[in-house]
Amino acid sequence: MSYVIAFYGTKDGQGVTTTALSMAAELARQHSVLFVDADMSGTGTAVDQLQLDPAGRGMNNLIGSRAITAHDLLREAVATRIPRLGLVPGLIAVCGSAVARLAAQLREGHALVVPGVEFVVCDFGAIAHPELRSLRQAAAAIATVGHRVFCVVRDDPPLLARSIQVLRAAAPPKTELLLVETRRGALRRDFQQTLQLRLPEVAVAGVIPWDPSRAMTAHDGGRPLELGLARDLEVVERAEPVLAQVRAGVERVS
Ligand SMILES: Nc1ncnc2c1ncn2[C@@H]1O[C@H](COP(=O)(O)OP(=O)(O)OP(=O)(O)O)[C@@H](O)[C@H]1O
Ligand SMILES: [Mg+2]
Fold first, then answer.
1. What is d(CA 32, CA 114) in angstroms, rounded to the nearest whole number?
2. pLDDT of 14-57, one tens digit each?
3. Ligand lying nearest the CA atom of residue 13
4. What is the pLDDT of residues 127-154, one digit of tens each?
5. Residue 109 CA to ligand 2 centre (angstroms)
6. Which CATH architecture has domain 3-253?
7. Ligand at shortest distance from the CA of 206
8. Substitution site in 8, 18, 150, 184 for ligand 1 pocket (most atoms within 8 Å of beta carbon)
């Protein structure tokens, strides 16, 4: 079994891929990690952020109706320049299926139980994208595949207002919010109060500074942005029971 960390957004371009790649790279310092670019909007960007050649591999070869297996994911993965981090490229120039359908394919083929991989980091992109009417289904489906589920939202007031609406419509189980702050925390208290009032079951688990110059430097170098989120969110500590099973599995095989 791999420990699955799912990321999604409420609306495009709020930093989901950047944040998910950052966590994957941080985990890969000590663990085996597979990043799955499962954004179904047809513009997978993880390979671009790491400046990798997908070499014809990726989700383009997996979407459809059949179950997706762990073997399929490993076959479609490319190596990155980061040791212990593999990546399944996202869709290129083709829109995928609804998130709920993709999650069903992944579950059916036990795709996210990847032999030898301790963490699978899955970027599902913005759920308010394909098949708008199925927000609730999409959020529920993501929760069925992820041990932890993070939703990245940015604090520009117009974005935040829509994010709250989308989240209310999605009623997402398991979701922990990561708030990307462009205003040095000025809106944090207001946002948290609004959440408490409108969506008491979802809380802000972590904050990320919006730092265009660091993001630009990272993207220019094809490197993930360093955010230290896995440490702050105690990802490894909470994954320990599952990691112990992965280690036991490896011992059984060897
Ligand atoms: N913490 C940050 N600080 C500054 N800029 C950021 C940060 N995170 C992301 N960005 C910038 O925001 C833009 C969008 O980021 P990213 O592609 O990660 O978003 P996304 O939510 O995955 O978008 P999409 O929905 O298109 O997949 C990029 O230009 C990226 O450099
Ligand atoms: Mg993205």
1. 10
2. 999 999 999 999 999 999 999 999 999 888 799 999 999 999 99
3. 1
4. 986 555 689 999 999 999 999 999 999 9
5. 24
6. 3-Layer(aba) Sandwich (3.40)
7. 1
8. 18
Task: Map tokens 């927000």 to a residue.
Answer: 135
Give the span between the Cα atoms of 224 and 37, in whole angstroms: 14
Choose from 95-104, 158-167, 210-219 the range with maximum mean pLDDT: 210-219
Residue with token string 């597979």: 34
pLDDT value, residue 14: 94
Q: Per the structure block, which two tokens stand in for 9?
A: 């957004």
What is the C-alpha separation between 248 and 143, in angstroms, rounded?
A: 26
Atom of ligand 1 at shortest distance to CA of 212? 4
Instruction: Of 89, 31, 101, give the one whose Cα is nearest residue 242.
Output: 31
Q: Give this prediction's pTM.
A: 0.96
Where do the domains of the chain lie? 3-253
